[in-house]
Amino acid sequence: MPVDHPFVWEYLQWHLDPVAVHLGPIAVRWYGLMYAVAFGVAYWLVMKRLRHETWEFTRDHIDRFLTWSVVGVLVGGRIGYVLFYGWGHFSHHPLEIIFPFGSDPEGGYRFTGISGMSYHGGLIGFAIAHVWFCKRNRLSPMRLGDLIVPAIPLGYMFGRLGNFLNGELWGRLTTVPWAMRFPNDPAGDPLHGIPPPLRHPSQLYEAFGEGFLLWVFLWSTKNLPFFRGRMFAFYVMGYGLIRFFIEFTREPDIQLGFVLGPLSMGQVLCGAMILTGTVLLFFPAREVTLRG
User: What is the pLDDT along the chain (292 residues), one digit of tens a residue?
Assistant: First the structure.
């Protein structure tokens, strides 16, 4: 990492180490830690509501559901990435989907971790885990959604900060005053005096929009009568809308580019979210208990 760049905004990324700590041969990245913080923040907010509001759920319900949701998000996120963003590669290298080791140039294997997660796949995994958990425990999925969903965006904000600290998912070329240069950007060659171009720090846009702003909206409306039973619908529609527009500042995934005219894969999937959320708003917001 070059150290001769001034500590100014556009070179901020050059002074950030994506690795938080080394545990022997394993590098623990801020990205992974931010995922843990995201789950922790969401859990804390849900438990706060459980203590101060009247719900039919117990702490044991939430603790067990947390395990289900973590598994759903991680498995769904990985499968979603493989299907939506990397099928061309993983269809020929299926072991890399779950094998956290890569070949070492000097022979043998080295730990590389499993990189590549899809938000939309994680959301699908979460939804499946949510409905399945409620069915097994004879709970109302809409009521559990009303309790949990308002806490999710604030946790997600930390996930996007993890992307920023990891120096990935940067934005498109721009000349706005707050543009940044990302050291991993292949469009530059710093070793030969060619700096990376200025880009939108779209990870920060997403952290603020999809995370903080969406959390403020859902958290401030969580107890309003009209939102009862509709929290998940508003979350899906709100997230889809915000990210759809932010994606115009985000560089499309290099292996895909634009997939539908000027739209990226993320925007296509967000369009599906907006449609799904809109449809869900018209479902009766009544108490529903799935019985196995």
Answer: 444 566 688 888 888 888 888 887 777 888 888 888 988 999 999 999 999 999 999 999 999 998 999 899 889 988 888 888 877 767 766 766 676 665 555 655 555 555 677 889 999 999 999 999 999 999 999 999 999 999 999 988 998 998 898 888 899 999 999 999 998 888 887 677 788 999 999 999 999 999 999 999 999 999 998 898 899 999 999 999 999 999 999 999 878 888 888 999 999 999 999 999 999 888 755 444 343 3
Cα gap 98→74, rounded to integer Å: 12
Nearest to 173 by CA among 164, 165, 182: 182
Residues 85 and 83: their CA atoms lie apart, in Å, by: 6
Structure tokens at 44: 């804390």
DSSP, res 210 = I
Spatial separation of the C-alpha atoms in residues 126 and 221, rounded to whole Å: 22
Q: pTM above 0.70?
A: yes
How would you class 106 by CB atoms within 10 Å of its CB: exposed for 0-12, middle for 13-18, buried for 19 or more? exposed
Q: Characterise 74 by phi-psi region: left (phi > 0), alpha (psi -120 to 50), beta (else).
A: alpha
The three-point CA angle 121-160-88 to 5° equals 40
Using N-to-C axis directions, what is the helix angle for 214-221 and 231-246, rounded to 10°?
Answer: 160
